[in-house]
Amino acid sequence: MSKTVITLQWNSTNLIIVELKGNSNQAEILRYTVHPMPESGLTPDLLQQIWREKHFSNNQVIVAIPESIISYQTLQFPILPEEQLQQALRLELESELEKTHYQVINRQKQGEFYLVKVALVQDSNLQTIRELFTKASLRIVWLGFKIRGLFNFINYHHHFFAEDKLSAFIDLNHTTIEFGLLNDDELLFYRQVEMGANYTAADIIAELRLSLAACRQNFQFDFPKQIWLFGIDHLQEELIQRLDAELALNGYRPEKTKLQGIQTGNDTSKIAPSIGIALNALGWDDDKNWCILTKDQQKQEDYRQYLNNGVKGFVVGILILLGLFLWIDSKNIKNDKYRKWIKAKSQLTSSLQKIEAKTREELVAIQKLEAFLELRGREIEFLKIFHDNLPVGTLITDITIEDGSVKNITGITPSVSLLLSKLQQVPELQGLKLKGAITNEEDGKEQFQLEGMIQLTKESLK
Predict the structure, then answer these.
(1) 3-state helix/strand/coil string of the chain
(2) Mean pLDDT, to the nearest integer, of 290-300?
(3) Which range among 14-18, 92-96, 370-374 shows the weakest confidence by mean pLDDT?
(4) pTM above the 0.70 mark?
(5) Which sequence spans correspond to the domains of the chain?
């Protein structure tokens, strides 16, 4: 089944948003933008502006975790089976798990040990990002890692563009570079290097020599002749020339994809991680360990699963009892006497069916209540914005809000026309309209009534 996914990543210079539609077999790019990052950085106003201008289809988004809030650790473990290695890793990080998320980036075998590189992210930083997007009326579905996006993008296109069994890449960031070697299953080698703000193509070549030496020391296979280039592009042309002249390697800057829809051209190397993360959401990559929820989101998800499982268990129990009754009755139907007995029991069957129907209705009500509770702060935010934009001398005497709908706002103001004009200047208040007639008070003021919708509430509840 086809679905639509919106992914977003940003750094100090660019905000990148990509919308894909498809499934695990094929996908198309519906729209994308590479927007220069203003000096004020990422703000709710900037997000709302881009959503209006680019017409993204919904307000649900998957966000790439910014590199600026990720820290890395390299841990050493003995050679263990996978399950025991994961247990050892959790034990090593146990003191940090309550407030930190971790993800294994890669592991390398060295002698009798594994060197495991782990990315760590503070939950408080992810919660801050989530709150920023909530203020822009956007909902973060989950957060992902840029490195996994690159992994997915390369493997999705690997056999389309190259015949090597292995792939290598360089990702150029503003103060760091990342070098990786991967196959279809895992990231075999990964190295992130701090370079400072003004590094050159020659600096990259020097660090790449060290990475190549480390690869050849750890892996006994031919290194791929082609290296994918991603990230900032002002050094890529010179780097391609130096790779060829000094290392006999072919630097490949992707300018096309095998995705349908919009062709991304020179922007491909910048938006590749976002495309790769979207492929995860579309089902091409089924490893859900890379889909990060904040601690609050995880609690809500666990509670939702608990309710669903409880209700489903209750319904299954009712159905089992119903089946048991029918089975017992069928074994005893031999004559009219027993058929009459079955008829008498039909009232019990009918009652059980009513209980099942009522249980299903309660499940729907619980799900709607969860959605409402998640957005319960929207009405308070609306009232604050409404209060802040009232003309001087305006007095509100009565407010009625139900399910995201403003049923009635009654008040007195020096000029209703001035009030309506101010409301129309605020996007969140443009849904308010005049209700009924305007009444003139003895002191010259005007009594008014308003009604309307709190913007986006119904859409967010879907």
Answers:
(1) CCEEEEEEEECCCEEEEEEEEECCCCEEEEEEEEEECCCCCCCHHHHHHHHHHHCCCCCEEEEECCHHHEEEEEEEEECCCHHHHHHHHHHHCHHHCCCEEEEEEEEEEECCEEEEEEEEEEHHHHHHHHHHHHHCCCEEEEEECHHHHHHHHHHHHHHHHCCCCCEEEEEECCCEEEEEEECCCCEEEEEEEECCCCCCHHHHHHHHHHHHHHHHHHCCCCCCCEEEEEECCCCHHHHHHHHHHHHCCEEECCCCCCCEECCCHHHHHHHHHHHHHHHHHCCCCCCHHHCECCHHHHHHHHHHHHHHHHHHHHHHHHHHHHHHHHHHHHHHCCCHHHHHHHHHHHHHHHHHHHHHHHHHHHHHHHHHHHHHHHCCHHHHHHHHHHHHCCCCCCEEEEEEEECCEEEEEEEEECCHHHHHHHHHCCHHHCCEEECCCCEECCCCCEEEEEEEECCCHHHHHC
(2) 88
(3) 370-374
(4) no
(5) 3-293, 296-374, 388-461
**How many whole angstroms from its chain centre is CA 203?**
35
How far apart CA 431 and CA 424 sit, in angstroms, is 8
In this predicted structure, the answer to whether residue 351 has a pLDDT above a threshold of 90 is: no
CA 271, CA 6: separation in Å to the nearest integer? 12
Contact 231, 269 (CB under 8 A): yes
How does strand 446-453 pair with strand 432-434? antiparallel
Q: Are 374 and 462 in contact (CB under 8 A)?
A: no
Instruction: Indicate whether 461 pLDDT > 50.
Output: no
CB 391 within 8 Å of CB 429: no
Has residue 220 got a pLDDT over 80? no
Q: What is the pLDDT of residues 414-455, one digit of tens each?
A: 998 898 888 888 888 888 888 888 888 888 899 989 998 877
Q: 69-117: per-residue pLDDT in tens?
A: 999 999 999 988 888 988 998 888 888 788 899 999 988 888 888 889 9
CATH placement of domain 3-293 = 3.30.420.380
Which pLDDT value is given to residue 92?
87
Where does the pLDDT of residue 61 fall: very low under 50, low under 70, confident under 90, or very high at 90 and above? very high
For residues 69 and 65, give the distance between their C-alpha atoms in angstroms, rounded to a whole number.
8
Measured CA to CA, the distance from residue 446 to residue 439 in angstroms comes to 6
What share of the chain in percent tops pLDDT 70? Answer: 89
